[in-house]
Structure to design on (146 residues):
């Protein structure tokens, strides 16, 4: 699917700054062009999801440098390190909206490497969704659909 890019070459609804934001004290700039490309591909995917969702999506965490990933206790093999993952939620903060966002993502599972739902009460699926981790496959690799 082709995407229509807007100013700065990024999709309509997501900016580079949003995809690399951090609330840690560490720098969070990508160090390779491959990371930049992956951040853009992740933003492309989220832009399409946002269009289907019909409302704003908040990116809690996108790309993470090694220092930022360590500061948030991220996995050493996290797709965030490569720019291929984002932790998202409905910007409204409403549980119904998060559930609807999850349904849309499940409908796109064939394109997703890893989809993890983080609930307010870990392991209790009926508790409210805090955020949804969306990990995309490396370029040219088949999604694991986990």
């Amino acid at each position: 699917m082709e995407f229509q890019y807007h100013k700065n070459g990024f999709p309509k609804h997501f900016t580079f700054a949003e995809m690399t934001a951090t609330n840690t004290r560490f720098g969070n700039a990508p160090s390779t062009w491959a990371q930049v490309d992956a951040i853009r591909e992740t933003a492309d995917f989220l832009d399409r999801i946002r269009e289907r969702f019909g409302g704003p999506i908040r990116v809690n965490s996108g790309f993470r440098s090694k220092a930022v990933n360590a500061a948030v206790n991220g996995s050493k093999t996290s797709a965030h390190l490569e720019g291929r993952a984002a932790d998202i939620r409905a910007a409204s903060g409403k549980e119904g909206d998060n559930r609807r966002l999850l349904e849309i993502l499940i409908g796109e599972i064939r394109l997703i490497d890893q989809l993890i739902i983080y609930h307010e009460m870990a392991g209790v699926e009926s508790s409210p969704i805090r955020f949804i981790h969306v990990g995309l496959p490396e370029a040219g690799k088949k999604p694991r659909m986990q």
Remarks:
- The longest helix spans residues 33-53.
